[in-house]
Amino acid sequence: MSSDTPGRRTRLDRRAFLGRTAATGAGVALAGAVGTAPASAAAPAGRGREKRYAFTVMGTTDLHGHVYNWDYFTDAEYDDAAHNDVGLAKISTLVNQVREAKGRGNTLLIDAGDTIQGTQLSYYYARIDPITGEGGPVHPMAQAMNTIGYDAAALGNHEFNYGIPLLRAFERQCDFPLLAANALDARTDRPAFAPYWTTRLRTPHGRDVKVAVLGLTNPGIAIWDRNNVEGRMTFDGLVEQAAHWVPRLRAMGADVVLVSAHSGTSGESSYGDQVPYVENASALVARQVPGIDAILVGHSHVEIAEARVVNEATGREVVLSQPLLWGERLTTFDFELVWERGHWTVESVSAGVLNSNTVPEDPRITGLLAEQHARVVAYVNQVIGTATEAMSAAEAAWRDAPIVDFINHVQAETVREALAGGEYADLPVLSQAACFSRSAAIPAGEVTIRDVAGLYVYENTLEARLITGAQLRDYLEFSARYFVQTPAGGAVDPASLTNADGIPDYNYDVVGGVTYDIDIAKAPGSRISGLRFQGEPIADDAEFVLAVNNYRAGGGGNFPHVADAEQVWSNSEEIRNTIIAWVQQTGQIDPSAFASVDWRLTREGTPVF
């Protein structure tokens, strides 16, 4: 398949973006192609003879491989309780509308990361028909984003899930730079990707506006994808690198400085002291680094139409915006500039979000990738086995469900087989899993790849770590923070029982191979009771092997002990593929072979359900 798709612009020379302003490429091509900006965009009414100019920066984030408004796990058009729509085809329509309203030359389009992981469409071109192969295909996300006309994109942590070679292949296929000022080459300590991108916007006053976009990614990559980046790249803090680059961009003549940051706003981290930097640092960057006008926020999957943070040094407001994930929203930053003392000054910035469920998909994008989409739909609908009865994750967040037991069963069996005949063969193997998707389901009868893939929506791999009985108890106590403290007596509403303090479903772990109760009437930290292995109480010094995913083993979620525990085995195969292979080899999923009630919620000893 040719990489030259309709609407693609001249490929950029990425060397032009390292350490200096881009003198060639999309930025200059854009400015040179648009001519004079419309008077309506450049000089709002009632402003007298002042030289003024207005432009708009559009932004997406956490697209996670979504091009179509389609759910590959349900094999149907995407829908949720809020009736959101997803995908770049929808975003393209919104972008076209904004460009039509503002003038093509008065707009820019950027992204804040997590682009090439998340759907079976993106997985297919990473693992089944990888873009790294000899004469391999062009990644669908590159094709779509090139055609829409993105100007720059920051890297997200999930960009590294498939390894650096695939990421570099994706980078070569993009007609826009991938930015990550704080992703450093481990040997030279210099940027491994372009730190920034600059362009000039032509105004009707003969004075170009110089715009710089600084890209920042998440330091947690160092632990979440350690196997892919260790010894090759290091990841500095967002505040530290912004403080280094923003003054340089201003010194280079930037009139406007934006940051595209794959980092939320809370100031909190999920990896504790595993990394000496803050995970969700966008608000800290705004507060502590002078010279920034606006920040496109990513990573945390929450909607922030507009937030304002006062910079401590300048007293000026920095405007932040985070659109919802998967292309559900498009952020728009509207800039008003005035010509003062020989340069452009930002007079005001406002932000908002546009909802993709208000527009149809752009047929230019859906038609461009129709063949790839059809190929992936056929792939995920392959039958690989049967199930003796249906299993659902609808209630797996608050009661032991066979569908999560199935994940733990396959993981534990895989680790036991790997350790057979070795030093740790006699140790009991436990397994950790979570309810990754409450909509996951295995039907009775024929089972397809998409059915099994829906159980495990992340590209995690499997490891085995040594833990003690005391460490296991601490681990379970930490996990049980997920439940809202609920006094004994009275009814319990499952809808308000989980996700205490914003803890996501994927950070509530259950451990298979042991039994225990979780008393939700008690305060977090004192909820686990009746912890037993094969019916016997577990001693503090008892030893176990824990089958655990690499995200958790690397410190993801900041669970105690496991990140420091001795690793006795690891595998580079995704857990999702391990489960698919298990079904293909076994031929049948029979819950009677693995389902059991290992944990339950209680209040003062009485089961809740």
UniProtKB/TrEMBL annotation:
Subcellular location: Cell envelope
Record-annotated 5'-Nucleotidase C-terminal domain positions: 383-563
Coiled-coil stretches noted in the UniProt entry, renumbered to this chain: none
A biological process from GO: nucleotide catabolic process
Key word Nucleotide-binding present: yes
Residue ranges annotated for the Calcineurin-like phosphoesterase domain, each copy included: 56-302
GO MF, any single term: 2',3'-cyclic-nucleotide 2'-phosphodiesterase activity
Classification via InterPro entries: 5'-Nucleotdase_C, 5'-Nucleotdase_C_sf, 5'-Nucleotdase_CS, 5_nucleotidase/apyrase, Calcineurin-like_PHP, CpdB_N, Metallo-depent_PP-like, TAT_signal
Cofactor: a divalent metal cation
GO cellular component, one term: outer membrane-bounded periplasmic space
Top-level taxonomic group: Bacteria
Reaction equation(s) it catalyzes: a nucleoside 2',3'-cyclic phosphate + H2O = a nucleoside 3'-phosphate + H(+); a ribonucleoside 3'-phosphate + H2O = a ribonucleoside + phosphate
Keywords carried by this UniProt record: Hydrolase, Metal-binding, Multifunctional enzyme, Nucleotide-binding, Signal
Membership in a protein family: Belongs to the 5'-nucleotidase family.
Protein name: Bifunctional metallophosphatase/5'-nucleotidase
UniProt lineage: Bacteria, Bacillati, Actinomycetota, Actinomycetes, Kitasatosporales
